[in-house]
Design a protein that fits this description.
This protein is 51% helix and 22% strand. It has ten helices and twelve strands. It folds into three domains: 180 residues, no CATH class; 77 residues, Helix Hairpins (Orthogonal Bundle), CATH 1.10.287; 145 residues, Histidine kinase-like ATPase, C-terminal domain (Heat Shock Protein 90). GO terms for molecular function: phosphorelay sensor kinase activity. Its EC number is 2.7.13.3. It comes from Neptunitalea chrysea.
């Protein structure tokens, strides 16, 4: 991607300089009739003739060297007024003059009379403007001419003047003009770069998604293998035991083995049901139900061995329009999770209350807790928190995923409030209809 952007930058940069060169060439061509006009040529010749006459007056002692410099500058000032007015008058015939500044100037002008050299302006000094206006640093040189005039008349053989005369052109906002000409190219390049960035981002996101899917597949395979190992091993051991003639005659032992076999079969069925549920959309059948009574029934049926489960319902009776089966499954899943991850403090709190337009159900434990960055991830399919009780607590990473799917179907929300070491509180909000 960086290579493509670099190539585009190189091409645009070259195109920019080419467009600049072409635009300046067009401007030069447009202003040439003005710069090389007969009027300006006449003014140049008039200045040259005046300088010649002034030098002659100096040669004849009618003008001092100091006065010569002053008079030459005065003559240049008078010609400047005429030249500037001419340039202004040409704007109607040459509209390009409204977009450019033209400056005619002497960068060097030297006079020599009777072997004495006088400098009107030296190369190291500020140039003398003949016509035009002040320019900024973006001007370019249009033309440059060196001149050297020596009078070889018998009377004037010791007289001469020489110097350098330059024309500069300053194009107002030439950068905008060049960029305007490149508009479509810049637009296409911008769109192409944006497309490359979007494509790169999409590819990067797809790779991350594929990586995540691969990790989920691996985790799921490991988890389900771990979950199935115990029942499979138990069933294998029971089947071998039932082949033992001594156990066949021992009724109590045989019943115990068959009970174990049934439990392991139910466990495998539970795992299969979980996986199937994750791939199927549950049907919603809402009915009016006393939510307080439903929660009390869930608590009564829940296996709360080895833990303390408290329930707090306000009010003690409240009718809610919801799907009993789905809500029951969600609350049961949350209670199971709280029991699994409670650690040594096996205290679980179930609360139900009305809050504005919602009925709120919260399940709180005092276990290991969850970091904030994991709060959203725990509701992803097959996701399990990579720290804490991962090797001690069994599961497929489907419980919270299924719970969120079912709550979404009920039109509610489920969130978690948790910090490492401070337990977790899962909060369900169901709109009161």
């Amino acid at each position: 991607m960086l290579g493509l952007v670099s190539i585009q930058y190189y091409l645009i940069r070259n195109s920019y300089f080419l467009q600049k060169k072409e635009y300046i060439a067009e401007v030069k061509k447009s202003v040439s009739p003005v710069i090389y006009s007969d009027t300006l040529d006449y003014l140049h010749d008039s200045l040259a003739s005046s300088i010649q006459n002034l030098i002659l007056e100096t040669q004849r002692k009618r003008l001092t060297h100091d006065d010569l410099n002053t008079v030459v500058l005065t003559k240049i000032d008078s010609i400047r007024l005429v030249g500037n007015q001419y340039l202004k008058d040409q704007e109607s015939a040459y509209p390009i003059l409204k977009e450019v500044h033209i400056r005619f100037q002497f960068t060097e002008l030297m006079l020599q009379v009777n072997g004495i050299t006088d400098s009107i302006v030296k190369p190291s000094e500020e140039p003398i403007v003949l016509f035009g206006t002040t320019l900024d640093n973006s001007s370019f040189e249009f033309s440059s001419n060196n001149f050297n005039t020596i009078y070889d008349d018998d009377e004037l053989y010791e007289m001469a003047y020489w110097g350098n005369y330059r024309v500069y052109v300053d194009i107002r906002n030439w950068q905008q003009q060049v960029l305007f000409r490149m508009f479509w190219m810049l637009l296409a390049a911008t769109i192409l770069i944006l497309a490359e960035v979007i494509l790169f981002y999409a590819m990067y996101k797809a790779l991350l998604k594929q990586k995540k899917i691969a990790e989920l597949k691996t985790d799921f395979a490991n988890n389900i293998t771990h979950e199935l190992k115990t029942p499979i091993a138990s069933i294998s051991l029971i089947s071998k035991s039932l082949r033992n003639d001594e156990l066949v005659t021992d009724k109590d032992k045989r019943v115990e083995l068959l009970d174990t076999l049934e439990r392991q079969n139910m466990r495998m069925q539970y795992i299969a049901d979980k996986v199937l549920e994750s791939a199927m959309e549950q049907k919603v059948d809402k009915t009016a139900v006393d939510i307080s009574e439903l929660l009390q029934t869930i608590v009564a049926d829940f296996n709360a061995e080895e833990c303390t489960l408290s329930i707090d319902l306000v009010p003690l009776s409240y009718v809610l329009n919801t799907d009993v089966f789905l809500l029951q499954r969600v609350v049961y899943n949350l209670l199971e999770n709280a029991k699994k991850y409670s650690g040594d403090n096996k205290t679980i709190e179930l609360k139900g209350f009305v809050e504005g337009e919602f009925y709120v159900i919260s399940v709180k434990d005092y276990g290991v807790g969850i970091t904030k960055k994991e709060h959203k991830k725990i509701f992803d399919k097959f996701y399990r928190v990579p720290k804490g009780y991962e090797h001690q607590v069994k599961g497929l990473g489907l419980g919270l995923y299924l719970s969120k799917q079912m709550i979404d179907q009920l039109g509610g929300t489920i969130n978690v409030v948790s910090e490492p070491g401070n337990g977790s509180t899962f909060i369900i909000k169901i709109a009161i209809e």
